[in-house]
Amino acid sequence: MDRHALKIPCNTMPFICEADYSITRSEMIHADRTVPFHVAIYLLQGSMEIMEDGICYRILPNQLFFLKSGIHHWGERPFEAGSAWYYAHFYCEEPEAGMEELPRGVRYEKRVCLEKNENQKYIVLPKLTDDVETNRIAHNFERMIEAHVHGNIPQASIWLWQIFMECAQRERDNLAENTYVRQIQEYIRVHGTEDFSAREIEEACGLSYKYAGTLFKEATGQTIREYQRMLRIGRAQQLLMETDRSITEIAQLTGFTDVFYFSKVFRKARGCSPSEYRRTYVPGI
Question: Does pTM top 0.90 for this prediction?
């Protein structure tokens, strides 16, 4: 996959050779080709599938997709009727030997004077980037096309760099959010039977409880407490099937101090009481 990744040196400007808007008026399949330039496609409506070096990519509205120069790409299925998109063909130098990826999260606490070689870094662009919520990439694409058709090559290149940075930042944010979610999940797996506080979650992941809860819900579809409850019920299920402990003991072992509340939560999650579950799934106990 690394050879398909588009790496953009920080010390160079891309050159856009073509940028425009397109729409399918009749059945269309992407051309079978290998080109000397990179391709950016921002889908506005419809859907399309493009193969790159044998890997199939499905592109949906408000997604930006990059194809790398020199790599064979083609279509096998027609685009959805009425599909519309922005596109750009551009050249950009490859990173020089020895160049490193631009580090993430760098922040200087005081004024610094950087050496010239500090710009000898590159960014890596994700193959697909979602732009559903902000549409910033779409707006920058429009500005880039406008500058290009009016012959303002430097301004068009600047807008393309804005798109690059937006994509790279989204990728970093997604990686960071996934890391936070994993930290929260690990904490709950270890402390799931405890009544942990909002402050303890904040200390575990380094975020405010409100923001951590928002990230967690977006990533898992559950609140932090719902996830904890799911793990507790899963553990209770296991104890009901594998042991002859009493319902009261199992409630206490899984973090429920009130056996009646435990039974209520269990019934809501599994559709039957703990006793009914045991009789159904573990005969003889």
Answer: no
Q: What is the pLDDT of residues 13-31, one digit of tens each?
A: 999 999 999 999 888 999 9
Q: Does domain 225-281 have CATH number 3.40.50.300?
A: no
Q: How far are the Cα atoms of 4, 149, 184 from residue 216, in angstroms, in the given order?
A: 31, 43, 8
Domain locations along the chain: 2-95+115-172, 225-281
* Cα gap 160→166, rounded to integer Å: 10
Q: Which CATH topology does 2-95+115-172 take?
A: Jelly Rolls (2.60.120)
CB neighbour burial string for 151-161, b if at least 16 within 10 angstroms, e if fewer: eeeeebbbbbb
> At what angle are helices 136-149 and 153-191 packed, to 10 degrees?
170
